[in-house]
Design goal:
- The chain is an alpha/beta fold and 217 residues long.
- The chain has one domain: Rossmann fold (3-Layer(aba) Sandwich), CATH 3.40.50.720.
- The protein is 38% helix and 16% strand.
- β5, α4 and β6 form a beta-alpha-beta unit.
- It starts with a strand and ends in an 8-residue tail after the last strand.
Length: 217
């Protein structure tokens, strides 16, 4: 049975990722800040394991890593993030830019034990500088910083045998994306799953969109 870890699975894209992967027979490890109140995540059927994780908390990260000490993950998707509408710039940077790398590093051994050895960090086209140095807003700056951090660690991850990418899920109708977004969460996740399934080492270290297009940095 293939296995996946979804960081940030309580709603929106993360919840739909958990739903689609459980429906297709994967063993799904999923994190939420409140596993005692899982909401719709707790209603999913299939092989689903829940973990408490606030991505800013070192103790939580260590506990999840310990829980996976004998597990093998085929795919790790770091989806947790915030819009920046109600958080300070410092908090947005901690959650959107720093945490994805820290959490992934803590779980790399489990990914290395997997068969597919794939890592996907959710970014955004709003974090694409396209060669510029101008500010992109708090959210865009946080995703640009994540992209920079990913590009710094990607060579080492590739040498370790991983296939890692940053992925723009599209403008999706979620709490974060808003009701007017053109893409449904179901369609975005379906396309992302297909892209992840097709990933090869040649695509490692690059910036992709949900529908399989390479995105400029």
């Amino acid at each position: 049975m293939p296995s996946i870890m979804i960081i940030g699975a309580s709603r929106g894209i993360g919840l739909e990722l958990a739903r689609q992967y459980t429906v297709t027979g994967w063993r799904v490890h999923a994190t939420t800040r409140t596993p005692s109140r899982p909401g719709a995540l707790g209603e999913l059927s299939g092989d689903l394991m829940l973990y408490e994780l606030d991505v800013r908390c070192a103790d939580h990260i260590a506990a999840v890593a310990d829980a996976l000490a004998s597990e093998a993950l085929d795919v790790l998707i770091h989806n947790a993030g915030v819009s920046g509408r109600s958080e300070s710039r410092q908090e947005v940077m901690r959650i959107n830019a720093d945490a994805p790398i820290r959490v992934t590093q803590a779980l790399l051994d489990a990914v290395k034990r997997g068969t597919e050895k794939k890592v996907v960090l959710m970014t955004s086209q709003l974090g694409a500088r396209r060669g510029g140095t101008h500010r992109l807003g708090v959210y865009g700056d946080s995703k640009a910083a994540l992209n920079d951090a990913f590009r710094a660690v990607a060579p080492a991850w590739g040498r370790a045998g991983l296939i890692a990418i940053v992925l723009h899920p599209g403008w999706v109708r979620t709490d974060m994306g808003g009701a007017w977004a053109p893409l449904s969460v179901e369609d975005s996740v379906t396309d992302m799953r297909q892209l992840i399934a097709r990933l090869t080492p040649a695509q490692h270290g690059r910036f992709w969109t949900w529908d399989g297009r390479e995105h400029p940095w």
